[in-house]
Amino acid sequence: MSKSIIQTDLAPSAIGTYSQAVKSGTTVYLSGQIPLVPETMEMVSEDFATQATRVFDNVKAVCEAAGGTINDMVKVNIFLTDLSNFATVNDIMSQYFAQPYPARAAIGVKALPKGAQIEIDGIMELPE
């Protein structure tokens, strides 16, 4: 099966040796997104809710560039530097996803790139 690279200017450019997403068949593997503003590649804010919203906007943009929607995601991994922000993530996530929700993990980590408080990656299955 062939693979294709997904890239959009509506999400931050890759800042390392990776692609925003890779599509193989109808499955899309999304790399981690942090709360960078695509146009400036700067952190959106120090405010957690603002960072979380920016990350979901970035993920949504990559999903759309791959030919789907954020609701086509089947697995979401959320990395948080402070697990006490979990309720805020739930509130913001509910603004982006409709039921049935994807499978999800929320993982507490010590640090994230560029001092981000949140990072999200996942897997999307495109409709055939």
TrEMBL record:
InterPro entries: RidA (IPR006056), RidA_CS (IPR019897), RutC-like_sf (IPR035959), YjgF/YER057c/UK114 (IPR006175). Signal peptide: none annotated. Gene3D superfamilies: RutC-like (3.30.1330.40). CDD domains: YjgF_YER057c_UK114_family. It holds the Pfam family Ribonuc_L-PSP. PROSITE patterns: UPF0076. Belongs to the RutC family. NCBIfam families: Rid family detoxifying hydrolase. This is RidA family protein. The lineage of its organism: Bacteria, Pseudomonadati, Pseudomonadota, Gammaproteobacteria, Alteromonadales.
